[in-house]
Specification:
This protein is of the alpha/beta class and about 325 residues long. The protein has one domain (about 1-334): Aldolase class I (TIM Barrel), CATH 3.20.20. The protein has helices at about 1-10, 15-30, 70, 115-125, 150-160, 185-205, 220-235, 270-285, 300-305, 315-320, 325-330, and strands at about 45, 50, 55, 80-85, 95-100, 105-110, 130-135, 165-170, 210-215, 240, 260-265, 290, 310-315. Strand 5 and strand 6 (about 105-110) form a beta hairpin.
């Protein structure tokens, strides 16, 4: 059905199409027109969590947790919402989302637009979903980078009781200076503060919620190694590789190649896989990796598992392939 609807959806502006498609999915689920897809892939353990299958939804599609139940019907083994910030923010000016159909790619400079952490929690509390839920947290744009830890700590404390795992997003290219947090000293300080707070929250809640960090694909060998060592040293529970890329050379002379923002979809696959492969070489089995970036068919997902990922996440590929991509990836990841 999605293949029939896609030409109509693609006539809409990308951001309008995004909201319209999710609203349609939510409406269909409400009236029982979507049935849960039975898992056709192997159960997987990730960060101590039991997944029905290793194919998850990446953060960014459902920023505020408004569509959790409808998205769950697509068969994901886990769902990640966000990025959420302590206070609501509009994000960057529109237009800020661009489709490149021939390249199966998307450019976005959304800028953590969301309704704030409290609104997300209210949506989670209304959801009937009982699968594995990740919550992706970030900092507000107006928060100085030197105070970024304050925002992450606020979010961590607020979402802790509602998440199965929490992702620290320090790799979006659309919040000024955010990627500076991937540097050695800055990364160590931030993750150490979050791990200390995690220990306190685990004691007070009587429940341990794993903590993962999401990194960029635009890293050289030294940076990847440094991040891997920090992640090991502070005992992070997982790492997500990767976010979008700012490198648009793969687009050649495409008229959208000059647009600011992160590039996702097929053109980021090789960059993401290079980071994934190197992380797996360094980390071995000590820290599980979630592979993200450029999955547009089942074989792309299977390749990330072969490279060392424990699980994978989809986003941009869904825009072009629809729900069938989830089932195809589940079959390929058996």
């Amino acid at each position: 059905m999605y293949s029939l609807l896609r030409p109509l959806i693609f006539r809409l502006e990308p951001e309008q199409a995004h909201h319209t498609t999710l609203a349609m999915l939510k409406l269909a689920a409400r009236f029982g027109l979507t049935a849960p897809v039975p898992p056709r892939s192997r159960p997987t353990e990730l960060m101590g969590l039991q997944l029905s299958n290793p194919v998850g939804l990446a953060a960014g599609l459902d920023k505020n947790g408004e569509y959790i139940d409808a998205l769950a019907a697509l068969g994901f083994g886990f769902i990640e919402i966000g990025t959420v910030t302590p206070r609501p923010q509009d994000g960057n000016p529109q237009p800020r989302l661009f489709r490149l159909p021939e390249q199966q790619a998307i450019i976005n400079r959304m800028g953590f637009n969301n309704h704030g952490i409290d609104a997300a929690i209210r949506n989670i509390e209304k959801s009937a979903y009982r699968g594995i839920l990740g919550i992706n947290i970030g900092k507000n744009a107006v928060t100085p980078i030197e105070n970024a830890a304050d925002d992450y700590l606020i979010c961590l404390e607020k979402v802790y009781a509602h998440a199965d795992y929490i992702t620290v997003n320090i790799s979006s290219p659309n919040t000024k200076n955010l990627r500076a947090l991937q540097g050695g000293d800055e990364l160590t300080a931030l993750l150490t503060a979050l791990k200390d707070k995690q220990a306190q929250l685990a004691a007070s809640h009587g429940r341990y919620v794993p903590l993962a960090v999401k990194i960029a694909p635009d890293l050289d060998e030294t940076q990847i190694a440094n991040i891997a060592h920090v992640v090991q040293n502070v005992e992070m529970d997982g790492i997500i590789a990767t976010n979008t890329t700012i490198d648009k050379t793969a687009l050649g002379n495409h008229p959208l190649a000059q647009e600011q923002g992160g590039l996702s979809g097929l053109p980021v696959r090789e960059k993401s896989n290079l980071v994934l492969r190197r992380l797996a070489e360094i980390l071995g089995s000590t820290v599980p990796i979630i592979g993200v970036g450029g999955i547009v068919c089942g074989e792309d997902a299977a390749e990330k598992l072969r490279l060392g990922a424990t699980a994978v996440q989809l986003y941009s590929g869904l825009i072009y392939r629809g729900p069938e991509l989830v089932r195809e990836c589940m079959d390929s990841c058996r």
